[in-house]
Task: structure prediction
Amino acid sequence: MWKGLMDLSGEERMEMGSSMFDSAREMILASLPDGLSESERKRALYERTYGETLPQACWDWLRRM
Result:
């Protein structure tokens, strides 16, 4: 499998990784509870994607949007 991936061009590997990230993002968004504000959805998406709490400065910025 590794060799097969390495046989792809850098552009093809990038497209594959981007597609996988987009799919994971959609699954995470679909799993979030209803009724969250847009900024709460963004915060939850960040925390589930990166496994860490969104820094307070970022949260403050999102709430102002």
